[in-house]
Write a structure and sequence with these properties.
Layout: H1 2-12, H2 31-36, H3 38-43, E1 48-51, H4 66-82, E2 86-90, H5 107-121, E3 129-132, H6 135-138, H7 141-147, H8 163-180, E4 221-222, E5 230-232, E6 239-248, E7 251-260
Parallel strand pairs: 1-2, 2-3
Antiparallel strand pairs: 4-5, 5-6, 6-7
Helix pairs in contact: 1-8, 4-5
Length: 261
């Protein structure tokens, strides 16, 4: 949950605010427990809820039926409507894979998962309710139709979202919030932030596209681009940027680690 919020903050900046205590119904909570957290959620005064719950209904000590799960989620939905809250529901996500087969669903519980997904995705006509479907981003396509597997790189334990999985979910949510939130009207207050003598391109490094086979473009670069490039971000020194590439399962990534003061 916090990983999704991290990416949302990057995507939307100061347009959203959600401190840690605004995150309710975590740590193995079923939809029953999530429903019990409606009152604390209302106390926060938040204008938007993002609801990702009920997967624990499928593997609790006494699994709930899909009718019970849907009834609990409908109660959360109705509370949001009654209080004028924009409520973004994430339809059930894939789970389990070859590395974590214990997270896979089968039989009635797999069927229940899809019934709950179908119910959530049918709520588009309700005022202020926005269902979001991340299945195509996260599902292992070769296996998803039979066992609902999540990509190895999308969850660090076959259930809880990895940084990659959180990124794809956050991007879907950000598309909704970008349409309803006021624009970012923060004004530049100093010249050093962008396009100054210390930062002529408006980026942390002088080769922001990491072009070239070696790190010869731009002042302060060393190493190969982009696999091991190192650069002093500011001619005044103190801040460095190190680039690298890698892969999480079948999903490649590129990262730049910025360090210093």
């Amino acid at each position: 949950t916090r990983g999704v919020l991290y990416w949302l903050t990057l995507a939307l900046g100061v347009r959203i605010y959600s401190p840690l205590n605004y995150t309710v119904a975590v740590g193995g909570t079923t939809s029953i427990g999530a429903l019990e957290q409606v009152a604390p959620a209302l106390v926060t005064g938040a204008g938007t809820w993002v609801v990702l719950t009920s997967t624990n209904d499928r593997d609790a000590g006494t699994p709930l039926t899909y009718e019970q799960t849907i009834a609990n989620l409908e109660a959360i939905r109705n509370a949001a409507i009654d209080n004028g809250i924009l409520c973004i529901f994430l339809a059930e996500l894939p789970r389990g894979n070859s590395t974590y087969p214990g997270r896979l669903l089968a039989g009635a519980q797999l069927a229940y998962q899809f019934r709950v997904r179908q119910a959530i995705l049918g709520w588009r006509a309700y005022p202020g309710i926005v269902p979001i479907d991340c299945w195509e981003d996260l599902a292992e396509v070769s296996a998803s139709l039979t066992s609902g597997q999540i990509k190895l790189a999308a969850a660090y334990d076959g259930l809880h979202l990895s940084p990659w999985g959180s990124y794809f979910v956050a991007q879907r949510i950000a598309r909704v919030l970008d349409l309803v939130l006021p624009p970012n009207d923060m004004l530049q207050s100093m010249a050093g932030g962008a396009f100054s003598a210390d930062n002529p391109l408006g980026f942390l490094n002088l080769n922001p596209m990491l072009t070239g086979s070696v790190a010869a473009s731009g002042s302060g670069w060393s190493g190969n681009v982009p696999t091991s490039a190192q650069q002093t971000a500011c001619p005044a020194g103190g801040v460095t940027a190190a680039a690298s590439v890698g892969a999480l399962g079948d999903m490649p990534y590129f990262q730049v680690i910025v360090a210093g003061t």
